[in-house]
Records
---
Amino acid sequence: MKSISFVSNMVVEPVGKMLEGAYEIEYRDLDSIVSTLSGRVESDYLVILLESRFFYEFYPDEASLQRVEFLHELIEGFRERNEAKVILSNIFDSFAFIESGLSQENIRALTEINLSIEKIKTGVSDVEICDLYSLGLRFGFDRLYNQRNRFLFQAPFTRKGAAEVALEIERAIARISRKRKKVLLLDGDNTLWGGIVGEDGIYGVACDENYPGIAYKRFQLYLAALRRSGLVLALVSKNNEEDLIELFEKRDMPLSMSDFVSWRIDWRPKSLNISEIASELNLGIESFLFIDDNPFEIEEVKNALPEIDTLLFDKENPLAMIERLSAVEGVCAHMVTEEDRNKSEQYRSEKRRAEVFGKSADMESFIKSLGIEILWWENEHSQLARISQLLNKTNQFNLTTKRYTQAEVEKMMREHTVLSFRVKDRFGDMGIVGVMILKDCFIDTFLLSCRVLGRGIEERIMDVAIERCGTSLRALYIPSQKNSQVENLYERLGFELLSVGEDGSKEYRFVSKKANRDYMSLKEGE
């Protein structure tokens, strides 16, 4: 069972009790935020719940932002000594009972404080925000807070408030700890728009400024935002393809056909189409979320593809679907990287590569025609989020499948060598797609994203380690359920097998190169 330590300048036991049973709970002394962040915490998560009095007495002032800076410095120091993930709250407050102009001034100041707290998340690894501010906007101050208890007992939350804060903590933990989905598979009729194209016609379906069309328009806008944050959209609809293409061309909707990296619009079982899309994108079914308004289609897909997650679209209450989708585990991101923002374009580039490969005489000619460029960095802190992301989601081309938190990677950058690799070719920039962790001259971790496999890139990347260590280079392969394709990789790269463990693990040392990929550009990044 995972463990949580609470520290706060208010009484938080009512919140913690809501999480008992799911987590082991520890409460630090009231008002011990500074001493806690200055010491050691052995729990998996440190939850810091902040009441506005941490930053100001009654109203925000000039010293409030200085207090945020002080908190930032404390959390930076905490990260150097601790591996516990930090769930840090922002703050909510009510200024409803003061003169209007002053109220607006205080609201602006409160917003600035919360934006500065958000910067702590982006500036320190393994920090996620517990969004008390959004809870306050959603439910209202009086439903979340009891002013009398706030000042009399330092216990500000109502029963409703404590329950909602506990749920928000769980959502924050899920964002920081769990893998994100990669693909949203979407039905069309009564999911992206209200109505059925084949019956209502392209101008009869609802996606406009009137109800229920406004609900579907808002849902499409949310999908577009998720796409920009790194989720890939695919369309799976039982329809005539020409009807849907005409709909997207002639109706003014937030999404267009170009927003979908793949689609299957026909009358075949949706499970078959989803399997084809998974194969086309080279992704596991478990990374997909399928959304449909028809319970039959949901059950058909779940029965055929038990690994997939599904969400039934409630066409009777379409306005609720943004909240329901955002609550699905793996939809919202902890951190959005540059690679995430370019994800859809990267898959389109891969489709263009596949088309060229189909016309090539052989694999080697195809690889040489790509004009591959590889850039590498050593201990590049600006890439921490992406490196951590790859370490925790890459399965197939991963020689040891060791999972490290962002804080652990940061520590290894101080003590060892963390190499990151970016790959480009004539079709586009694939971003940071490889990681190698060297402890002295031992390869602790070596992985590549599945989207660059089959091009010999691993052979060229290995040259960086070989140039550093020569025949002193050692390596390890640890078998997993998903990495059998790299079981004999080190033999192919010129390593000699030294031993085989009872669990199938293999130890190696480098002897000599077996392949030459010098036609791939390899240089250190700036």
---
Amino acid sequence: MNNLIFVFFYSVLHFSGFTIFTKFLKSSKIELQEKSKLYSNFYPLISLFFIGNLNLILNFFSPLKKVAIFVVAFFLFLAVYGLIISFKNKYIKDSFINLFLFPFLISFSSYGIKFHYDSGAYHLNYQNWIYENKISLGVANLNPFYSYGSLQEYIFSNLSYFNLNLLFFFVELTFFTVFFVWIFQYINDKNNDFLQRSALFIAIFLFLDNFGYMGGANGSIQIQMVGKTDTAVAIIWVLISMLIINDLLKKNSNQNQFFLILTLGLFAFQLKSNAAPLIFLILFYVFKFRKTFSFVNFQNIMLLILLNLFLVKNFLVSGCVLYPLSFTCFKKVSWLNFDHIYESSYITLRDNRRLQFGENFIQSLVDLLNHSYNTQIYTNFLLSLILIFIFKKIFYKTKNRNTQLKITYLIFILINFILFFFTVPAFRNGYGLFLSSVILFTIDELELKKKLGFLFNKYTYLLLTLFTIILFPRFFMYSEAKNNNFSYVDFEIGIAKYEKINEGFTVPIGNNQCWYKENCLLKTKYNNNILIEEKLGYTIISSSK
């Protein structure tokens, strides 16, 4: 039953995204049909992007619980309208794999899933706060990790209306489904050599994730516990990289492609700020096509407004435009407790064993490799790249070298690896970087060797994609589905005990997980005193030692 519910959920996002994207661009019928072929994979992400940003805007004026049902009804209307238009114009023929089979198979991972620790620590409680209150200045004084304020919180908060935790996970599964549909579509596309090769090599990298040193895991995207955005950002990162490199190789792009890339880039940044280095690749793309694009138009202005609203939200929540970068904090605003913010960012950097310059470099490298599963993952990552290189040498010959573009993209990858290892090198933060490294092998123009070309056909590609998807959910998830007779199964929030402190606040006992507890705070030595005041109908929260 979970599978069928997700198929419905995904279809709603697909058709509402279809309506938004096509009507927003005001396409003619001929253009619409062509764009449906090119961009249909992205419709669910377009829906999530607009749901999140609509809720963000509404939260400036209202608690989300007062508008949740209207937002849901609006997107259901868009989905029904999109479905009618799609049937009328025959845009959904041959959609069994895209809209049913892949979502159905991937959603087996919903059995046995549970919340990530950080969901209880700050994600769910922040979602509850914006659900119950309009935007509050300085709410990060209750928990410094509210400063992250991902757009995902605004998507999830809207779904809180239904009291079904499974819907949160379905948002995350949407990114996986979009990605696999994209891979399958282009792995069979004989009309676009670069996208076909990239899809194939990425599918091989995903498949190799299941094998290797200590059982596998090569840094590829994987199903995370509910609440984290790392995989979603990684998928957008790879898709943007493929779209940009493809246009650069063709030496051709258009305004709609530009808008799509900017939208996806903004979405990734709003989900998690570590997507910001994508700006280097996007700026290179903009420079190359600066004479092709119109920069001042309604669509781009709208994206700029959404970006600025997101940054304003960050400032109002924490006093910092871009947490945890201290130079973006405004120390003179009353709701900024800089020590409170600084402590949390220090803990994040310390606990993830980043590399350090100077005399401590060697020791920091040893600490990094010995931390968590890093040695296993980095070993398998290198082994996977070696195997893909060997695969390329055996089955392909190089027709034309695109050296300049390959060097440019290599520099982009290396810069990001340096940023990754010297900031917060938790391997989940590098999913997109690891996977997009595979694209380096596909930038040259390649041709299958004739003697071995018969091995590559639509059936081979379908089997490779299906095997990768089937192996994606863990085996215990299939067991959970079978044990529950494939019926509807939700998962629950954690249980915690709380202690009341002064001024009507509570703190969790034994850990820092508040879950959905109202007025629960993460206690630090810098927020012993909480001051709450009302001005012009808005709550202002400040704190001190």
---
Amino acid sequence: MPVLDVFGRAPEVFTEAKANSADLWWFAFVVAVLPPLLLVTTEVIVTLLAGNRFARVLHIAIVALLGMLFSVRAIRLGADIEGIALFALAVLTAGLLAVVYTRLVLIRQWLRYGSFAPLLFAGIFLFSSPAHSIAQGAGKKASTAIPVVATAENRPPIVLLVLDELPIRSLLDSDGKIDAERFPGFASLSEDSTWFRNATSVASHTVNAVPAIFTGRYPSVKERSPIAREHPNSIFRLFGNAYRFNVSELTTQLCAVPRCDIENPENAPDATAETPKPVANAPKPRVTKSNPSPLSTLLETAADTYRQMVALHNIETTPDVDHDALVAVPATTAPTTTTIAGPVDRGSITPTTVDRGFDFLPVVQPTRFSEWLDRIDGDIENPELNVLHIQMPHGPFHVDSKGTNYRVPDDAQQLVGFAASRWSPDEGAVISVKQRHLLQVRYVDTLITVMKEHLVAQGIWDEAVVIVTADHGASFDPGGRFRELDDQSQVDVLGIPLFVHAPEFEQGVTDDRPVQSVDIAPTLAALADIDQPWPVDGVNLADLGDLIRTKYRAEALRPGEYYETKTVDVSRHLQQLLARLPSPGTDGGDDLTILRNGPSGQLIGKRVEDLKVALDSPAGTVEVEFPPDKNFSPTETGTVAAFIIGDISTGGANQTIVVVVDGRIGATSLTFDDGTGHASRFAALIPPTWMTAKSHEVSFYLLADDGALLALS
């Protein structure tokens, strides 16, 4: 049951859907047990109505159909075959299976015994997969709901923003400082905060990294689901009697006290536990649109997952933009001010803070951000705990800094050049993905600006405790790992931004002492003057002293697959970080500057007619794999076709590809061997704002050693 296997190894899917144990039991039944039960029932009915002969024909047809679906999945995993060829092989395999089934008694007996497999797979999913703790129901009491009595009256408002998949190296310039030209929002934040440049995460994946931030504890040796029952002693339990709550989690459900408004009854308080005292002006229950049940959401996702597993082609998943649900963000209206239109009045932003305008914040994540930010008020007397985990700039990378949405393939294909847990060793494999990542980070930079200006407009910026961090990073080095830890990737996977703005912290200071994400929870407790009655692994960032850290326990490999913890040595983290800074001249600038940091990037923007073009026969052919329809027109929702994946017929790796759009050079890239049989593959991003017209003429060239453009047909 591949679907149960995939879902069982991803407990965050169930927490994100707010599923309870009953949902998981029904999910296992519908996915694993119901389909074979329906097939058996159908055969029984056919036997009763039409006799054994027709029932046997139906039975063999079912065996062949199931064999064909299994073959499609197996062939796609084992070979680079798609389309008609894949279909033909699958049909041939299914036919052979049907023949073997009818002629060999041993095969029929083996499959008969295999009829118990759905129950076995369902049992493994419910009792031993990483999602099993959710399926076990309320065996553990949700002690998170027990409030801890506060010790002081005047407390600061707290804002904790947890970004996702953001390595600190992405924000740095060639001097090891925040790149103020490229990321003005983060630079402004650092000027008003203490920036802990030597900060590291304790996990490479969200399901362990975020709980560590909220609890102050290292990942457990035994894997735990990211829910309150598994992590009861968190900041939400600690602050439950002292703060109003404005909390928005994504892949975790650690906030289980009533004001978190979590709908899952098994994450609610124990009926015998003491409940928090009413807080003045506590937020009213949120009014949300009518949403499908967790079970229906999970089943829809499962159906889509299986559809992708047995599809004859890789299925494109383009983020769909609903413009009615978008939230306006800064748009420059005058030389001196930038005003924010939309449902939230967030004051104005000066051009020195942000000098680029945005039309809309696309889709779910920024909408969550805006709704969360809208709930932050200026009530100092009744302070609020505002916590948001937003899955940005996490992939899939699909927006530029202006919020222009461009088409991308599914998750596996949008990281073209990544296979077998590593990037291809050829430089061309990571050029485009790094560029797309940085453009999305620049988009997040604008959210930082919007948040700061809102807090200033509410009159709470000076008194507030504001912490901005990320759950973990990612690595984009050729030949290296993306998220798993090794000596090469560790500095980027664990190195995270950490900014702390509070009256107790100096502004504009860079602190290079070794701190960790587990230090955030005890720091918040200390700044709120609340005693912490349980042990933590972190320390108060306001009282570090001569802190020396060299090693600590961290989650090492992907949860649900090869989960383990290992001792991580971070004694040379800062030294390694500063040794990998961008070269002078490759930092700073806008989106176009980032895209020009590729091979012969200075050509981008030039007209082909102004360059030397060889008039000989084509140097080779190019096959455009994405967009799959070779249609470079925007979709009805305004999503543009700016990202290209292709393969050329000649030359191998490290050739410079030039993409021409409407007569001017729009992108350059290097070919690379992706390790799957494509020795001359390439990926390139055209500036998305160039692709908004109804139609575009796109052509491809090789760049010769003498600078001439060699046409590809």
---
Amino acid sequence: MSRWLALTILVAASGVSAFFRRRARLAGNAIERWQEGSLAVVARAAIGLPLWLSVVAYVVNPKWLGWSALSLPTWLRWTGTVLAILAVPGVFWTLRALGTNVSETFLTKPGQTLVTDGPYRWIRHPLYTTAVGLFLGLGLMADSWFILLFAILALALVRWVVIPLEERELLAKFGDEYRRMRSRVSSPAWQRLETVPLDKLQRQLFSTFGGPTMLRPLTVFVILLVLVSGNLTGQDLQVAELGECCLESGEVIQECRLGYRTVGTIAADSDNVVLFPTWFGGTSEQILGLLGPDGMIDTSEFFVVVVDAFGNGVSSSPSNSAAQSGAAFPRITIRDMVRNQHRLLRERLGINHLEAVVGISMGGMQAFEWAVSYPGFAEKIIPIVGSPRLAVYDIVLWETDLRILEWFLACRCQPPAAVRRGMYFLMGGPDYRSRVSPRDSLPGARASLEAASLTEDRAHDLGAQLHAMIDHDVSTPFDGSLDRAASRVQAEVLVVVGLVDHVVTPTPALEFARLLDAPTLEFGNDCGHQAPWCEVGSFNSSVRDFLRR
């Protein structure tokens, strides 16, 4: 029975996939697999081909895979059956939502639109989730450790190679629009996996199963599962309860809390700690994709503390405060964020010194504030497309955004959300938008405006962070003197800017770098606020080299 049921599931899933992929190809702008690069093509073939062939072998003659039998209990094989069956409508639902955006590769297509409906309203990368579920289910149905092994290897390839590359593509094309989507939509647990040390894994398993001599095939499978897929330790969201947080205004955040995640291993002398605060509207979860051996910060060398800024919906915010919700939430500043991040490090994590503070956009503003407010606490500061204080252009931009949110809160209607999305679309700049958004993408862009929405909680959270950015000025304690503020800085500083940034004007950051006689990394491409990620290879390399100095 399971053989024929597996055949039905495989044919149904393959048929659905083939139909939608053919329809997308006929719509034009198809990208061939070879354009991903030879390494990606070889990796897909090395894992995908044995996986498909082993499933087909089971369907044709189960005895061909008898050598890989696990003797799984019946209930576990039926669990796999249910998982595989549910994957089929999952594939259909996802591909239907993607429509002509369906692609054979992780590369974005010309004219591609950002999909936010269907399963994309609730989880990120749902097609990968359903595909992983399909093959894990078929492996359990077939009672084959070989199928399960290659299903897990496929999961690992997607988790640590395909998804990070696809995220970079989406960020480069859609920018803040995609960042806002990521802040609303969660990742399934398997997309947040981190590897674990082999020696620790062996000790845990041997203590459970009685030692190496008792390792049966199922135990070997468990080892492979955990080794390849890892666990959530180190990347799980943690929350520090800080009691009351005193603010610059004299007000207090009651029941104050800071969310954070840690990635990597802290050195014995704690000299490899990097603090990474979040950007405007962003969360610590979103930053995880920037970390790793080929990312901005190599977590095999550094222990990264990714901290959620006030007002992002994770740390204390108007949306999650029981005592000060909504408009009753006190006004916060960038300096308030930094002061209480310092408390988190000292009081809760026992960290008294940082190797570096790295931040992007509003995170870069926090990095500048760290350099001035706590000189000597960090060896290096890397503000990326941030500012020590906003230029007039920036203030007018963010005050316009603030007024749109106030309009929404007054009318409780969705037209302000469409206006806001249109404003963020224009922030990319005309040259960049002309390049990534050809004329045939206009229907999708208009549909995106129509689909834009806001909630009251989200509007209050964004408004809190907008006020913090508008008020941001590292020179405020020094009577507005940027020279005096700069004289406080003791850390080595690398200032990263986009020269045609239409979101955060680069001039104040470059002026501060000049006062510090600090090196700068300047990107002159037309990608605006996303400029570093349009040259991500050289950008990541420069940041890693600066951290290793």
